[in-house]
Amino acid sequence: MFAYGQTGSGKTFSMQGSSDNPGVYSRTFNELFKVARERTAWKIELKGACVEIYNEEVRDLLLGPNDKKQKLQVRQGKEGNYVPGLTMLPVNNVQEVESLLNTAQANRTVASTDMNLHSSRSHLAVQILGTMTNPEGKQFSSAITLVDLAGSERLAKSGVSGDRQKEAIKINQSLSALGDVIAARAQKNAHTPYRNSVLTHFLQDWAPPELANIYDIHMLFF
Ligand SMILES: Nc1ncnc2c1ncn2[C@@H]1O[C@H](COP(=O)(O)OP(=O)(O)OP(=O)(O)O)[C@@H](O)[C@H]1O
């Protein structure tokens, strides 16, 4: 699921929500753990990861202040791309996911522009990966990814220069690459241009075009 829209339109606000008005994260993860609890005969293991894609670099947002930062790269896997070395922590309930999200939000790159005092300068991807074994012993794996995209911005309006301007150019380029990927998937093109940005490369799965509809993409427009 992607939150997409102009800078300052309320994407991060709607993803995070508040204590009296839960956002997309809370609602999604409450439902996920409710379903997991109901499947009493299944063995379900869930792990969470949070990354930001900043200036075409993948950054691990779950590192503590003393953890060693390493350069992360997207690698090709059989069922989808993955990032070797990325922190993935077991999560057993919504509170544990919320704790990961708090760490991620605190580590995310934010800056002030004319259009948003706390503008996200990166795409934030929150991923829950599940390994599930049904009562017959058959194993499945699955992932849900919620992406709070950095906002598209007109440089003249956001009034940015220097580093902020470079960030805005990268943000706009990667949003355009995401649009191209979604269009190619929707049209079931033989080639999907995943490699045109780190965002789309990170999110690449390996569904052949004829099976594209088994991978749900939801866009929230702001
Ligand atoms: N529905 C709302 N009610 C009250 N305040 C809101 C609402 N939506 C957004 N805001 C406020 O508007 C400001 C901008 O919102 P937010 O940071 O969520 O925008 P954004 O789309 O994520 O921007 P960017 O792409 O620049 O990161 C914030 O101060 C936020 O608290």
From TrEMBL:
Organism whose genome encodes this protein: Durusdinium trenchii
Pfam families linked: Kinesin
Family per similarity comment: Belongs to the TRAFAC class myosin-kinesin ATPase superfamily. Kinesin family.
Residue ranges constituting the Kinesin motor domain according to the UniProt record: 1-222
Domain of life: Eukaryota
Region (Disordered): 1-20
Name of the protein this chain belongs to: Kinesin motor domain-containing protein
Binding sites annotated in the UniProt record for ATP: 5-12
SMART domains: KISc
InterPro entries: Kinesin-like_fam, Kinesin_motor_dom, Kinesin_motor_dom_sf, P-loop_NTPase
Signal peptide: none
Keyword field: ATP-binding, Motor protein, Nucleotide-binding
Keyword DNA repair on entry: no
Biased composition (Polar residues): 9-20
